[in-house]
Amino acid sequence: MSGVLKVAVVGHTNTGKTSLLRTLMRDVEFGEVSDRPAVTRAVEAALLRAGGAPALELFDTPGLEDSIGLLETLEKQRGDRRADGIELVEAFLESVEARTGFAQEAKALRQVLASDIALYVVDVRDRVLGKHRDELTILGYCATPIVPVLNFTATENALTAEWREHLARVNMHAVAEFDTVVFDLRDEQRLYEKMRTLLDTRGDVLETLARERVTQRHALVHASSLLLGELLVDVAAYNVSVADGDTAARDAALVRLKQQVREREQACVEQLLALHRFRPTDVESDALPIAGGAWGIDLFSPAAMKEFGLHAGGAAATGAMVGVTFDLLFAGLTLGTAAAAGAAIGGLVGAARTHGRRLYDRLRGRSELRCAETTLRLLALRQIELIRALLRRGHASVDAIRLGETTDGSSEKRPRLPGDLLKQLARAQLFPEWSSLMGTTRIDPSDEAARQDLVDELARSVQQVVEGPKP
């Protein structure tokens, strides 16, 4: 493929070479990641695109298992000849040793020679040993630009400074820190910048890829926020109507409400995982604690009165009906006579097609069960923490994220929810038909537009929390 940068990923066995490719590719299925040494036994290729066109062809190579023995073999082949490094490596690749005892090393070196640049992956939890020094010497013989990539830098026992000092001694200064488990987009950007430094004439491809990664990240956060907005509207608008005093019906309704909300949250989790290209097994979840309450919407809140008042006013041409309707709302549903109550209710039902039936049911002794504010807050917080965890998670990580724990293991503080979140969700509570959990199959086009406006508004609030303050 003309114009595609060929990148060899090399290093000692079990340093995270395949993990690096998984994270760069955003693909948890690429290759095999294991604590066992020498898992990769053949060269595997993967393609990264930028601007819709192939940009980088990445080659995962077998680990360099016996660099000390290999360097001795290369030096023996040199003998008294004044051969340069490339000549030594090429001669080795034609030798019997390259097909027998050093077959895995030969595959890696052959790919390095055929590539534009090599990424030398280092596990910084290891001390700098003789085998590492010999690996760098051998790779230097190939005369291919090399960017050392320091992996596992987020661990407590990382020897990052020691490795940087040693690499500087062997004249390798374009060093990149890139933890394949704890992902940071800025580290990925710096990796591409280091590669550009060594590839003066091919840097445009890497620049395009780096810009596209930033754009993709922003789009990923936006799409994640929309999924959460949909979840919050579905749950906030959802309610179950039950007769007052019917304990059995109330208990059954509460069980149904909790089950449906938990299933809806799980569906959102699975959607987020798929969006971020992770597997369902990558998250373990505690059951969502759900607090339900009778008549969870306050009919006498300003938002509710506005909705009821507008519809009631539209039904009555003159003051009597309007006065009774507002008296009804402000007086706590107390009217002078049963006849007046009946007239008021009838007028309200006729006027408020969206809300009248609910108020009518309430006056007849029925209550609504819905999720309390604490549940809505927790639901939002759990998904925001999940989104942030997925954005930080490298595709090489093998440990499941625990959804529901009080901490994600990092020193980062838990996010603060948008201050107007509950105010936004109060609007959804006025429209049960906005919830897919209600089984509504058809929504009036104007209501659908209003619902989408609220989802978009919630998504913007969530996105600000996920991305944090602008620098």
Helices, strands, pairings?
Layout: E1 5-10, H1 17-25, E2 44-50, E3 53-60, H2 67-78, H3 85-93, H4 103-113, E4 117-123, H5 130-141, E5 146-151, H6 160-169, E6 176-177, H7 185-198, H8 203-237, E7 240-243, H9 247-275, E8 283-285, E9 292-294, H10 302-315, H11 319-330, H12 338-351, H13 356-363, E10 366-371, H14 373-392, E11 401-403, H15 421-429, H16 445-467
Parallel strand pairs: 1-3, 1-4, 4-5, 5-6, 8-11
Antiparallel strand pairs: 2-3, 7-10, 9-10
Helix pairs in contact: 2-3, 2-5, 3-4, 7-8, 8-9, 8-14, 8-15, 8-16, 9-14, 10-11, 10-12, 11-12, 12-13, 14-16, 15-16
Name the CATH superfamily assignment of the largest domain: P-loop containing nucleotide triphosphate hydrolases
Question: How would you sum up the major sheet?
Answer: 6 strands, mixed
Q: How many β-strand stretches? A: 11
Range of helix content? 40-55%
- How many helical stretches? 16
Distance between the termini: 39 Å
Anisotropy-based shape: elongated
Fold-level CATH name of the largest domain: Rossmann fold
Instruction: Report the CATH architecture of the largest domain.
Output: 3-Layer(aba) Sandwich
Please indicate the count of domains: 3
- Kindly name the structural category: alpha/beta
Largest sheet strand order: 2-3-1-4-5-6
Strand content: 5-15%
Rg, Cα atoms, Å: 31 Å
CATH class of the largest domain: Alpha Beta
Name the average pLDDT: 78
List low-confidence stretches: 33-38, 292-301, 307-352, 404-411
Order of helices and strands: EHEEHHHEHEHEHHEHEEHHHHEHEHH
Protein described:
This protein is of the alpha/beta class and 471 residues long. It folds into three domains: 194 residues, P-loop containing nucleotide triphosphate hydrolases (Rossmann fold); 174 residues, no CATH class; 68 residues, no CATH class. 51% of the residues lie in helices and 12% in strands. The protein is built from 16 helices and eleven strands. It has a six-stranded mixed beta sheet, with helices on both faces. A three-stranded antiparallel beta sheet has the order 7-10-9, sandwiched between helices. Helix 8 packs across helix 15. The longest helix is centred in the middle third of the chain and has 35 residues. The two termini are 39 Å apart.
